[in-house]
Design goal:
This protein has about 120 residues and is α+β, with helices and mostly antiparallel strands. It contains 4 helices and 7 strands; from the N terminus they run ββαββαβββαα. It has helices at about 30-35, 75-80, 100-110, 120-124, and strands at about 10-15, 20-25, 55-60, 60-65, 80-85, 85-90, 95. The longest helix is centred in the last third of the chain and has 10 residues, at about 100-110.
Length: about 120
């Protein structure tokens, strides 16, 4: 019976909300983000083709699998813009959500807060 090597777990911080979550080095940033328990985090794009889970790495080191060039250009990737479904940590990471993923992150941030009432002007 061989012992399984211990998984290294890194701390991932979402700069938009100040939240953090654990992520194993063998796990994608998106898969681990599911541990936040948010509804609406786009998890159907793990194949790298949809582009909904676009993030910007602001600090830390990551390992990226091949990015869909339809959604992340080589220039963007050089600037730290990646698809969370195709990216795994190799250190603690700080990231900013961009694109359509922002809606799910912001919605979760506002959960539990009363919604502001709409004014008559806003309803029209």
């Amino acid at each position: 019976m061989s012992a399984r090597p211990e998984q290294i777990v890194y701390r991932i911080e979402i700069t938009d909300t100040g939240e953090s979550y654990p992520c194993r080095e063998s796990q994608s940033l998106l898969k681990a983000m599911e541990s936040l328990g948010r509804r609406g985090i786009p998890v159907g794009c793990r194949g790298g083709g949809c582009g909904v889970c676009k993030i910007r790495i602001t600090s830390g080191a990551v390992r990226c699998r091949k990015m869909s060039r339809a959604h992340v250009s080589e220039e963007e990737e050089r600037r730290g813009v990646v698809l969370a479904c195709r990216t795994s940590p190799v250190s603690d990471v700080r990231l900013a959500v961009i694109g359509k993923l922002q809606k799910a992150i912001r919605r979760g941030r506002q959960q539990g807060r009363p919604r502001p009432e709409k004014t008559r002007h806003q309803e029209e």
